[in-house]
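Task 17 of the worksheet. Students: predict the tertiary structure of the chain below and write it out as structure tokens. Keep your answer in the requested format; marks are given for formatting as well as content.
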Amino acid sequence: MSFSCEYTVQFRDTDAAGVMYFANIISICHVAYETSLIESGIDLKVFVNNPDFAVPITHMSADFFRPLFCGDRVIIELTPSSIDSCKFEIEYQILSINAQTFTKSLVSATAITKHVTIDPATRKRQNLPEHLTNWLIRWG
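Model answer:
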């Protein structure tokens, strides 16, 4: 079961032509990632400032299929999956919302992020903490 949330493309997300600036796709994907963590009961302040683990993004890629403009409403669907005991990836679909029917429309973009769990002090890989494993199970 994937996680989904709505997002409205903001002026700050766009370039001078009024189209979403390519690098900002990761920002809106990250909004969905953070929201899914919160929905799973994970405290973001503790998650980000945890002395026992860190979860950096090690890879990101995106493909655009149609432009996104300021004011467009989208649904961001994310599906995480485990790669191994310390790595996972998240696949994102950014779907336009039809302004007349308020239903999902065409896929405007897709993205993938890959994450690894590390010890912040040694920077060495370590197993995913239990709450992240539970998050993977819930939304994967």
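Marker's comment: The radius of gyration is 16 Å. The chain has one domain: 3-139.
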